[in-house]
Amino acid sequence: MNQPSALHVPTQAASRVPPQVASIEGVGVRRTTSDQLILDGIDWLVRAGEHWALLGANGAGKTTLLKLLGAVMHPTTGSVEVLGNRLGRVDVRELRAHIGHVSTSQRVPRDATAHTVVLTGATGTVQPLWRKYDDETRRLASELLSELDCKELADRPFGVCSGGQRARILIARALMPAPSLLLLDEPFNALDLPSREDLIDALRRLAADRPSLATVTVTHHLEELPDTTSHALLLREGRVTACGPVSEVLTGELMTQCFGRPIDVGRQDGRWLARSGRGAEPRRPV
Ligand SMILES: Nc1ncnc2c1ncn2[C@@H]1O[C@H](COP(=O)(O)OP(=O)(O)OP(=O)(O)O)[C@@H](O)[C@H]1O
């Protein structure tokens, strides 16, 4: 384990404590060009079956933190271990193949059909590598499209699919290598209300059907979090202000502290509601 290029992907151990999926210790990220400290002193542990919300104001460092978990970048200081492999001691291209990462900056050929886009998740490539996809791989791509409620889109070019459909197709793509960790960077970006609810339903089903899958979702809106969200991490200017079970972290007090302005947090039917004011005292949650 932890030898250069020797990828170790743990199997489910028979233990009461779910296995660690990712562990971050004392992590700092500094941009060499601007010398800006983007992340500072981050400690975080993600276990199998946990569903994390990653929240913080614009520029707080959420995407950067997600990139560390996705083995897309290395920390300047501290250690990042993903699926039992420490960044810096493993071939990150191999490791990335075991992590589902959906981000808005993802490059996707617009003329490729939804089925083809999902297939490319098997090879982790932008363009399809046709010779690598056998019948079983093609069948899996179809099944994942069905699971994400996109079966009828299989032959439709990705570029003409709606924002909500594209989000679900990209999640199906990310699930092709059966990842233990699924990272979602603002998956609800620019979705209308029905599309948002469809995606929330899809994430809820994923959590129910895949009990050992861990997810981390970056969002700006508590209303977008499925009721299966179990944990939350709040970031402010590159530092963690709160981290733990949602019941302890998604409170008006801790959200107010994180965003630096009064925020009310309420909960209805398992989902969250948040409202921000300016200058007023935080009101009691509804
Ligand atoms: N490649 C880069 N070069 C220089 N600075 C960067 C780079 N990437 C990120 N930053 C800076 O790092 C800080 C954190 O950026 P990051 O994208 O992680 O924040 P974020 O919380 O995801 O923001 P948002 O909510 O606006 O997407 C910002 O100040 C940003 O300008």
TrEMBL record:
* One Pfam family linked to the record: ABC_tran
- InterPro entries linked to this entry: AAA+_ATPase (IPR003593), ABC_transporter-like_ATP-bd (IPR003439), ABC_transporter-like_CS (IPR017871), P-loop_NTPase (IPR027417)
Q: Which GO terms describe its molecular function?
A: ATP binding
According to the lineage, what is the superkingdom? Answer: Bacteria
The record's annotation in SUPFAM superfamilies points to: P-loop containing nucleoside triphosphate hydrolases
Keywords of the record, alphabetical order, are:
ATP-binding, Nucleotide-binding, Translocase, Transport
Q: Tell me the ranges covered by the ABC transporter domain, including all copies.
A: 24-262
From the Swiss-Prot or TrEMBL record, give the protein name: ATP-binding cassette domain-containing protein
Q: Which organism is it from?
A: Streptomyces smyrnaeus
Its organism's taxonomic lineage begins at: Bacteria, Bacillati, Actinomycetota, Actinomycetes, Kitasatosporales
